[in-house]
Amino acid sequence: MRHIEQRPGVTMDRTRRRLVTSILSGLITAALVILLPRAVGATWSQVGAVIGRVSPGSLVLLTIVWIAGLWAHSFVLAASLPGLTKRRGLTLSLTGSAVANVLPLGGAAGTALNFTMVRRWGFSASSFGGFLAVTTLLNVASKLGVIALALGLVPILHSGSAFSSASLLFLPVPIVVALGLWILVDERAAVVVGVVLDKAVSAFRLESRLPALRRRILQLMRTGWQPMTVGMLAYLALQLALLWLCFTTLHVPLSVPVLFTALAVERLLTLVPITPGSAGVVEVGTTAALVALGGDPAGVAAGMLLFRGFTYLMEIPVGGVMLAVWSWFGRRTGAERLEAVAG
């Protein structure tokens, strides 16, 4: 009885903590974005003048490339959950991102939403567990791969700089990523590693959960590694193309190696969940990196804001609309089922 009486207070405390966290996160995001030009030695009037160069035709082209990138990523999602269509994969991607881009630490909320959607579509909880594990693994591996390749380009861009020695620390990253993917795909390597994992798991008495999840991950990677690989590479290529077009549209000259380095920094900073969708952190950090590589402060800031306008900001309204449509059709389907049962 005492436990029941404490529930309202506990709920109120959680609500207050979430509200305070949301406010603080929003303030940090706003402050970072507002201070972005000053952080790199420019002004908002200069940045605005550069953004004003965007034409309606360029916006259409940028939108097409942005959608193409999301569609390429839907191949990865569909291969990670057999039976999932590309359209539903795109829906999962945008609705989950919309929630994650709005709420502090919204990745968990976006995952919970995707779980609800997948379950309503008839998939099992274990299927979603494998889907989540594989997509998380691929996303992290792709980001580490891009970062490692970009750091390999740094000595070419700035020979003898401080970046050169730092890049040596990341040279093993692509080797580790390639080794991990080989283990997941190759049967014999998977067996050897599986024996080692089984012994380690047994030592910690986790036999009931990890082996089943590991087997599911192995099965998904072995059967779907080709569309996963092609989809992820196409997605990254289109992200780089979108970044290049953003700066080209604004007439801000930056070489492809520099832009690839910027993409790597952006990928790295998205792993820092200080704000929803790492908003503000990504813009300031990536812009500062581009200025350090010789970019014009105002032009670089404008280009990054335009790029993030698609990869972050646009996902909120588009994902919100898709979530509303999914919710409406879900309620309608549920009502039709109840009428069928009553009839």
Strand content: under 5%
Count, helices: 15
Q: What value does the average pLDDT take?
A: 77
Order of helices and strands: HHHHHHHHHHHHHHH
Number of strands: 0
Distance between the termini: 42 Å
Helix content: over 70%
The rounded Rg comes to 23 Å
Assembly state: single chain
Query: What are the segments in which pLDDT stays under 50 over at least 5 consecutive residues?
Result: 1-6, 159-179, 181-187, 189-193, 199-208
Shape, please? Answer: globular
Structural class, by secondary structure, is mainly alpha
The major pleated sheet works out as: none
Question: Could you explain how this protein is built, in words?
Answer:
By secondary structure, this protein is mainly alpha-helical. The chain is 82% helix and 0% strand. The chain has 15 helices and no strands. The longest helix is centred in the C-terminal third of the chain and has 40 residues. The radius of gyration is 23 Å and the shape is globular. 34% of the residues are buried. The N terminus is likely disordered.
In short:
The protein is mainly α and 343 residues long. It has helices at 2-34, 36-39, 44-51, 56-80, 86-100, 106-120, 125-157, 162-168, 172-185, 187-203, 210-249, 256-269, 281-292, 297-313, 315-342.
What does the secondary structure layout of this molecule look like, with pairings?
Elements: H1 2-34, H2 36-39, H3 44-51, H4 56-80, H5 86-100, H6 106-120, H7 125-157, H8 162-168, H9 172-185, H10 187-203, H11 210-249, H12 256-269, H13 281-292, H14 297-313, H15 315-342
Helix pairs in contact: 3-14, 4-5, 4-11, 5-6, 5-15, 7-8, 7-9, 7-11, 7-12, 9-10, 11-12, 11-14, 12-13, 13-14
